Amino acid sequence: MVIKEAKFISSNTEVAKCPETKLPEYAFIGRSNVGKSSLINMLTERTKLAKTSSLPGKTQLINHFLINDSWYLVDLPGYGWARVSQTSREKWSKMVKAYLGKRENLACVFLLIDSRLEPQKTDLEFIQVLGEMGVPFVLVFTKTDKQSVQKTQMNIATFKRTLLQTWEELPRLFITSSTEKKGRDEILDFIAETNEE
Ligand code: GDP
User: Fold this and answer.
1) What is the pTM of this model?
2) 147 Cβ inside 6 Å of ligand 1
3) Which of 27, 31, 42, 193 could tie 178 with a disulfide, CB 3.0–4.6 Å?
4) Which residues form the EngB-type G domain (predicted)?
């Protein structure tokens, strides 16, 4: 897929205020600092579409971008800031669960996982939430340029083994590096394929 146009549409704290549309949307989420903004900018080939490294405590927003006038890319607020209050965590959880549960045009969630880390509790908990809510999702392993191919393979194998303790099937996986543009074609092809169905 060629990205001809990527337009910022809106930022919202409530799902009810998100754009009214029948176009499919694809949401990106992960632990803070996982490389979500970099991945969105890499996919859209825009250097500043998504703002990198928003600070903890900043308003957490659901950002909608319209791509090629045919689908929405949604930047969801990240989780896992070490120093945020219980109240902010609960606010995040309420907002994201409302989004996942109510957004009827949501085609797929891209859950970003830092390829350098062993399975993180917060990521596994979020996968559990997606599963319980019946939301279609795929996993995107990020920052693979920062280590050897072998190390990435090892960490992904560990992640898969961990998932298979509770899941019968594994979701689709993407291996990415925003600095090397790795995984871009695969993710865009996947979006184009699911968009045609
Ligand atoms: P976000 O908080 O999830 O939006 O993460 P950012 O996109 O802001 O990335 C966090 C940090 O990781 C920044 O310093 C990025 O430059 C860096 N980063 C993100 N993706 C990659 C990647 O694929 N490779 C490398 N080497 N660094 C990355």
Assistant:
1) 0.96
2) no
3) 42
4) 22-197
